[in-house]
Design goal:
- The complex is a heterodimer of chains A (562) and B (169).
- Helices cover 8% and strands 56% of the residues of chain A.
- Chain A has 562 residues and is mostly beta strands.
- Chain B is an alpha+beta fold and 169 residues long.
- Chain B has one domain: Glutaredoxin.
- In chain B, helix 3 links the parallel strand 5 and strand 6.
- In chain B, helix 2 runs parallel beside helix 5.
- The chains are: A mainly beta (562), B alpha+beta (169).
- Chains A and B meet through helix 1, strand 1, strand 2, strand 14 and strand 15 of A and helix 1, strand 1, helix 3, helix 4 and strand 8 of B.
């Protein structure tokens, strides 16, 4: 026994000694190493752990594991023109709300890149977007569990100043595995002012681009003859002159029967146009798009957000306040006509009484199409367009008005009003037994009072009024920033207007969704701990939406960059 | 017991390495970005003639980011006079909202260089988890300071750090 004890002391002493010498060794070494230029290692890290407590009042299911933890770390090595990296990911098991196909540990992302001046070569995983993404976008949003990274080879080349060429081939990530299809793509862009001397000093800045993407997937269908190679192409332009700019893109895809479009053989197309005018203190922007049958995936049987090759952006205002995004819109690649307009105006520029307003009106309709009679539709086109304009069915309307005002150095306030029309049946699926369209009025007041240099208190009051769905909601949040490192917050979301009654005639669905959180921040590290209930629903961040279940419990999140 | 000690030992080496790494400024990694007008610029070409640069990651839908950039904007002339600093604001908006980056920046009246990191290549290369995330690059082009998130008054800390870095501390 004594022997073991002594041995432990010895080992400890030895390791401590090594470690102490190691500190100076490591530092010395690194200074020397950086002088020698052996390269640099850096990365970032995130971990989220959640402990679940079942709650029948909000329908939160128990997690059999009780505690679930997801995390990842990126580690990148750089030396001069060379860089290489990996991402280690861990899902033990996937947290509620994430796809359960995220399971186990692994290194699903690794790459090596060499960049000489005009040439860049990447092998392994990479993310790439052509133009606005209508025919290709591989992208990640770790918070939402979205990742369709390509795994293959990518070349970028600038043969002449202002001409950018990109070629790639790869397979797409599908959770912890890869999809069956092969994606090939090419993109060319020319920046006229850089390439041609004639344009060099012009006020008019003109950029043109074109791209082609093709997917190969074997046809194993017993009844239909499916195209194995599906090609899509797109062309785009952007013109800027002084305060004015306009950009547009047109994309088309050959027949591509897939699960998402009900195996119709119609070709797909998308058109997008945006223009804006901006000067100091005032801006106006307008945009519109028409998307028809543009669901493009590297597996024709994939669904929801899995194995998407392209991206069709939603144009409506992106909301971050809780009740404003209560009924969130997701773009409809199968068919939609969208429009958006926005005015930003800074009325008082003087910093202590600054006043600015934003007005946005945006919306979306279905397309004006006619279903073809299956008995005469010999080529399985499915439907045809009556006109190029929008259909009669309203999918979304959002009329939004925001005022931001500062009152002296210490107090500022934002007031928002929004009227929304939301086609619940179309956007959430026919299985939803609720109202076809939900009409809601939402008001938000956000106030910040700066007590002293780094100490502030912020309060948010929100209200959603609707006669449909779950009726009225109220929301209140108070956030106290103690100093630049610490904050605490408490919020409650209350479904006070719910008219649902139990057998005894009592209102049984007037639930409080409360949440307490505290956080610590220093440099590039952040730790937050929260306890409370989460409402079930669709949550949209960064243009992607996902369904999250009701949950109740404790969540710990850690993020760090180094 | 032995395992725990070895574990702690490994962890302390790891944290030591991170600390050492943090004090060693690294160069700005290379990624292609777009200007608001649509031109392509590589981040490795960022320079301010031997004076410091602030790089701030933001998005049009990120309220704390805009609060931070507004707060800096109020005193930016003084900061520039004192330190010669330049601010580069990197928007991570995707094509859904990237068209509004230029209009947003102009209507806020920011005197910053604005770039769009449409598919987040630069964000990944700089190891940014969430926005806002702010960096200071010293006159030698090395990343020497960073901070994630924004709370009221954080701009004062940023300015203090900036002054120290300008003095070469």
């Amino acid at each position: 026994m004594r022997k073991i004890y002594l041995k432990t002391i010895k080992v400890t002493a030895f390791l401590l000694a090594v470690n102490y010498s190691n500190i100076s060794f490591a530092q010395l070494n690194l200074t020397n190493l950086s002088n020698l230029n052996v390269g640099e290692v850096h990365g970032n890290f995130q971990a989220d752990a959640q402990y679940y407590i079942p709650d029948s009042t909000i329908g939160a299911d128990p997690a059999p594991e009780k505690m679930l933890m997801n995390g990842f770390a990126n580690i990148i090595y750089t030396k001069g023109k060379f860089s290489a990296g990996i991402r280690y990911e861990s899902y033990l098991n996937a947290r509620q709300g994430f796809d359960s196909r995220y399971q186990g540990n692994g290194i699903p992302y690794r790459f090596a890149t060499y960049k000489a001046d005009e040439l860049e070569v990447t092998v392994g995983n990479f993310y790439q977007q052509f133009g606005n993404g209508f025919i290709l976008r591989s992208y990640e949003d770790r918070g939402l569990g979205f990742d369709n990274a390509l795994d293959g080879i990518r070349l970028k080349y600038e043969p002449v100043k202002g001409i950018y060429l990109t070629g790639l081939t790869g397979k797409q990530r599908s959770f912890m595995t890869q999809g069956p299809g092969i994606v090939r793509g090419f993109d060319g862009e020319i920046q006229m002012n850089e390439t041609f001397k004639k344009f060099a000093d012009k006020n008019l800045i003109l950029t043109l681009g074109g791209s082609f993407v093709s997917r190969y997937q074997k046809d194993e269908d017993q009844t239909l003859v499916l195209p194995e190679n599906v090609g899509a192409s797109a062309g785009r332009f952007k013109i800027s002159r002084n305060n004015f700019s306009i950009n547009g893109e047109y994309a088309t895809k050959i027949n591509d029967p897939n699960a998402a479009n009900n195996y119709v053989y119609k070709a797909g197309e998308a058109i997008f146009l945006a223009t804006n005018y901006a000067k100091k203190g005032f801006a106006l922007s307008l945009s519109a798009s028409r998307t028809d049958n543009m669901n493009f995936r590297s597996d024709r049987t994939a669904s929801v957000n899995n194995l998407l090759i392209n991206y069709t952006p939603a144009l409506n205002k992106q909301h971050t306040y809780n009740l404003l995004s209560f009924y969130p819109y997701a773009s409809q690649p199968n068919g939609e006509f969208q429009f958006s307009s926005e005015v930003n105006w800074k009325i008082i520029k003087k910093s202590e009484h600054k006043l600015d307003i934003t007005f946005n009106y945006s919306g979306s309709n279905d397309l004006d199409t006619m279903r073809l009679n299956p008995t005469t539709d010999s080529t399985l086109q499915g439907y045809e367009a009556n006109s190029y304009f929008m259909g009669k069915k309203v999918l979304l309307r959002d009329c939004y008005f925001e005022v931001n005002q500062k009152f002296g150095k210490k107090f500022k306030m934002s007031v928002i009003y929004s009227y929304q029309e939301y086609n619940n049946k179309f956007l959430k699926g026919a299985s939803d037994a609720g109202s076809v369209t939900i009409y809601s009025h939402i008001a938000v007041v956000d106030m910040t009072y700066k007590i002293k240099s780094s100490r502030a208190i912020r309060a948010e009051l929100q209200h959603l009024a609707t006669k449909q769905d779950k009726q009225n909601w109220a929301y209140a949040l108070v956030e106290y920033t103690i100093n630049s490192n610490w904050f605490v917050a408490v919020l409650d979301q209350y479904n006070y207007g719910n008219t649902h009654k139990d057998g005894n005639g009592n209102y049984d669905k007037r639930t409080h969704y409360y949440n307490f959180s505290a956080g610590y921040n220093k440099n590039a590290n952040r730790i937050t701990l929260s306890y409370g209930k989460q409402r079930a629903g669709i949550f949209c961040v960064g243009g992607i939406c996902r369904q999250v279940p009701a949950s109740n419990g404790i969540t710990l999140s850690i993020t760090s960059s180094f | 017991m032995k395992k725990i000690i070895i574990g702690l030992f490994a962890l302390s080496i790891f944290t030591n390495t991170i600390k050492a790494q943090n004090t060693e400024g690294r160069a700005i990694p290379a990624a292609d970005l777009k200007t608001v007008e649509g031109k392509t610029v590589n981040s490795s070409k960022f320079t301010n003639d031997g004076k410091p640069i602030i790089i701030s990651f933001w998005a049009t839908w990120c309220k704390p980011c805009k609060k931070e950039l507004d707060a800096i904007s109020e005193n930016f002339e003084e900061w520039q006079k004192e330190t010669g600093v330049k601010l580069i604001a990197i928007s991570i908006d995707d094509s859904r909202s990237s068209g509004k980056v230029g209009t947003d920046a102009k209507s806020h009246g920011w005197d910053y260089e604005i770039y769009i990191d449409q598919n987040q290549d630069f964000k990944r290369a700089m190891n940014v988890n969430n926005v806002p995330h702010t960096f200071i690059i010293n006159g030698k082009g090395e990343i020497v300071w960073q901070h994630n998130s924004y709370a009221e008054g954080d701009e004062d800390h940023l300015y203090e750090a900036l002054k120290k870095i300008t003095k070469g501390e």
